[in-house]
What we know:
Residues 32-60 are annotated as: Disordered. The protein has 558 residues and is of the alpha+beta class. Helix content is 40%, strand content 11%. β1 and β2 form a beta hairpin. α20 crosses α23. The model is unreliable at 6-33, 36-52 and 75-80 (pLDDT under 50).
Amino acid sequence: MGCVKSKPIYDGQNKANNVKDDPSTIVVGCEEDEFSTTDVDRSRNRNYGSDESATSEAIRTSSRTILSDLMTSIHKMPSYELGNNCVDIVTANVAHISNIYEGVEDGPILGYGISGVVRKVKHRETGAEFACKPLPLDKIETEEGLDQLKEELGILMQLDHPNIVKLEGVYEAEDQIFLIQELLNGGDLFDHLDVQPEEHYSEAQCAKVVKQMLSAVRYIHSKGIIHRDLKLENFLFNDKSPNSELKMIDFGLSKHFSKDGTKHHEPVGTRYTVAPEVILGNYDEKVDVWAIGVITFLLLSGEAPFGGCYEGESPLEIKRKILNAEYSFEPVEYWNHVSSEAKSFIRHILVPNPLKRPDAASCQNHQWLQEFNSHNEKPLSINVQRAMTKFRGFSDMRKLLCEVIGFTLMPDQIMELRKEFEKLDVHQTGEISLDGLKQVLCKKSNEFRYTEEECEEIFDSMRLHGQTTIHWHHFLAAGLSECHIDDTNHRLAFDKIDTEKKGYITFDDIVDVTGALALDRRVHSLQKEFRANIDIDMDVDEKVYFEDFVRIMKNVEN
Length: 558
């Protein structure tokens, strides 16, 4: 492949280029005469002019309370999401990560990230495997660096999409924070491209992965998030199977953006995918769309359209080509296998003026993608239809506990549900709309003949927190009966509810993690139901241990 990845590292589930030694990962120089590599640790280490040691010490002291601050901000969120509370947030005074996960200091090395060694760890009580990424707090020397770390954590906790890496937990130690993320074993898109015949993807292969990438991009943009560093290395496959799911990773440079037209100005990104407006220092979320165009070009040819992958390339020449969107479908032998529709898709995106560049939704509707990714016409699984219909009659408590279990499901447990979710996600947003649900359930070919009113009832029952769409894990909660649930899921769910790691839970713990108060639910009604249906003689303050919890959950799941 023409593009060369040197010194691969693993930075929170991603093999990225080493910032200090590899010219491709950069803080982009935006002066008219430069386009240079700058040493940076995900923008966290940069000194913004403060040379007072007292200031740095104050920042480090402040950073040690970051998780307490994060928990406070989550509880104040006006729009509640259970996913926020289903991420384990464990401060140093509650438990040490090594007491919960094996291998934090000596587990198998997945790679060397900018912030340290990323390891495979194992949950001690279940044996479930995850990736553990360290974030040293002693490297944070500015308020900007601290704010960026808080933003990264907040963004990771907010995301709920099948093509985005899932954050499992955040653990605080004395001088660092550890991120526990789902373990992605399939390698990154760069490595997959490198081993393809003739070092490029077929159009069918390319369209398949571009569809998944665009769904993730459209989703984060809908949530007011800009990634700012999309590249081959920041998309990982879930496993090594041919039909493995692709997932977006590494939100270390991501930011929330305002939809009022406010621009970003920080010169960050990676040389071979950076957009022209980043070089000019005035940009918005359309930079992520540009990166998708570059990646598509790379997947189809094995070459980067503007360069930026080779050592020794002229930075000024790369900059000039990017600013002018100067590229060509050459050499001919690389492109004679590519259709005019695929080339049209690339031209559609690689437009230097972001105002004329399409958004992610428009890209999804391009003829090329539609041709290769025609909507799955197979009917929705009868079992899933039955599960959703049954879920409509569940009580609030039962729905909420199903959702907690949904956040513990492993990839092999949800493979079939993932296929069914895609059938319902007719608009490719990573969420299910009422219109999309009706399109699928009201088909005459369905064995069950749903009326529009029944579809609306099912839709409302699955919007667990009043959102306008059904989120990925809401769907998993409704389809839980189609998954093989075991004690690993029960233990992980128990741990998510036992936030203080006491070894038992109370009704108040369940209220806290499910957000009953934040949702303005009738807590006393939930309490009565909880006590009446768990077959345990208890008062509200009594303790529920794991064995009793398993019995509760088995009643919920059946």
